[in-house]
Design a protein that fits this description.
Pfam families: RsgA_GTPase (PF03193). With 364 residues, the chain is α/β, with parallel strands linked by helices. It has 3 domains: 90 residues, Roll (SH3 type barrels); 166 residues, Rossmann fold (3-Layer(aba) Sandwich), CATH 3.40.50.300; 80 residues, Probable gtpase engc, domain 3 (Ribonucleotide Reductase Protein R1, domain 1), CATH 1.10.40.50. It is built from 12 helices and 13 strands. Helix 4 crosses helix 9.
Length: 364
């Protein structure tokens, strides 16, 4: 097979609305970030493929002329790029990610699980009704900032309220860095209003609680009720609650949409930097407090309390910041403890094995 290798080294992300044809790899989300990581020699020996689906028996990968399932590996997740070693599949090289969403597994084990890699934009979906919750939006945004994913707030069900303006105002106050879009997820609005982020070759995901309209939006983007993709399998097309797989849907002529059922139990762990970024206004204020360890309660010279008194800061935002930070600290510290216990245990095992080995030698 002859490949046009110039396609593998894009000059940069294609601009929206451009009529330039894009290569099959670019359609799969290939970007200069990945191209920079390989040499022409790598390319000849190991063609890039993207993991579009993870299931128990393996990873479904697609590339230029490649469509196959390779053995599972714990360090790769949906959205990852691999340099496929067709002779030794397990030796395929994992390319450095542009972004990574991970979570702490529910239950007692609480291991870190990789959710998805290389998402460009996450639409944080909430509806203009009782689901609307600033603290929840903030959690998702902190997570996106940490994961290096661009968040966009999408407020659905605008048709069910007389005026969504109040929801929009509240959502806009979450962060200057995060755009807010309102729409009716059924019909034509999503395609038009999300077009900037849903260009061909971009990878997007919808995050949010059950019933807010994530599936409706996904279908709206794909222009059908059953998303037409190369990765989709029959059972998934029928019922979206039946699958526990994670996969990327290739929207014909458009972006790639990640569909992951595990997004609902997201826990905040190891996202301190994301929280700092989201609450940078509070961090800046805190830097002017008289005491470095100010708790922003009743301390004299507290710049945060002063801002609240002056009406520049909403007291509830301070409360949410505190809550998020303590949740994060709790989740992360228990992980640290677990890691250190694991280490101690590992050391103990090695010592015993060593002792045993020494004794066995002595016995012989
Ligand atoms: N009126 C109105 N109904 C909507 C809108 N978006 C979604 N719905 C309806 O809300 C219901 C739930 O939408 P889904 O798309 O299934 O929500 P989801 O977020 O995918 O839910 P899960 O699959 O449980 O996570 C469906 O009946 C949709 O038709 C909207 O913008 N306006
Ligand atoms: Zn203070």
């Amino acid at each position: 097979m002859t490949r046009n290798y110039s396609d593998f080294f894009p000059s940069g992300p294609k601009s929206g609305g451009s009529d330039q044809p894009i290569s099959s790899l670019q359609k799969l989300g290939w970007q200069s970030h990945f191209a920079q990581q390989l040499s022409a020699d790598d390319l000849i020996r190991t063609p890039p493929v993207r993991v579009v689906e993870v299931h128990r028996n393996g990873l479904h990968v697609l590339g230029d002329g490649t469509d196959q399932t390779i053995p599972p590996r714990s360090d790769a997740t949906v959205g990852d790029w691999l340099l496929l070693d067709e002779v030794h599949l397990a030796s395929s090289r994992l390319l450095e990610r542009k972004s990574l969403l991970k979570r702490r597994a529910p239950g007692t084990d609480r291991q870190i699980q990789l959710i998805a890699a290389n998402i460009d934009t996450a639409f944080i979906v909430s509806s203009c009704n009782q689901d609307f919750n600033i603290a929840r939006l903030e959690r998702y945004i902190a997570l996106c900032f940490e994961a290096e994913i661009e968040p966009v707030i999408v407020l659905t069900k605008s048709d069910l309220v007389t005026d969504p303006a109040d929801f929009v105002r509240q959502a806009e106050r979450v962060s200057d860095l995060v755009p807010v879009v309102t729409l009716d997820a059924r019909g034509d609005e999503p395609v038009a209003k999300l077009a900037d982020w849903c260009r061909a070759g971009r990878t997007v995901a919808f995050l949010g609680s059950s019933g807010v309209g994530k599936s409706t939006l996904t279908n709206a983007l794909s222009g059908s009720d059953a998303i037409e993709t190369r990765a989709i399998r029959e059972d998934d097309a029928k019922g979206r609650h039946t699958t526990t797989r994670r996969q990327l849907h290739l929207v014909p002529g458009g972006c790639l949409v990640l569909d992951t059922p595990g997004m609902r139990e997201l826990q905040l762990a190891d996202v301190a930097a994301g929280i700092d970024e989201l609450f940078s206004d509070l961090n800046e204020l805190a830097a002017s407090c008289r005491f470095r360890d100010c708790l922003h309660q009743t301390e004299p010279g507290c710049a945060v309390q002063a801002a609240i008194l002056q009406g520049q800061l909403d007291a509830s935002r301070l409360q949410r910041w505190r809550k998020l930070k303590s949740e994060e600290a709790f989740n992360s510290s228990s992980l640290a403890e677990r890691r250190s216990k694991d280490k101690t245990f590992g050391k103990m095992v090695r010592r015993i094995m060593k002792d045993k080995g020494a004794r066995n030698w002595g016995d012989s």
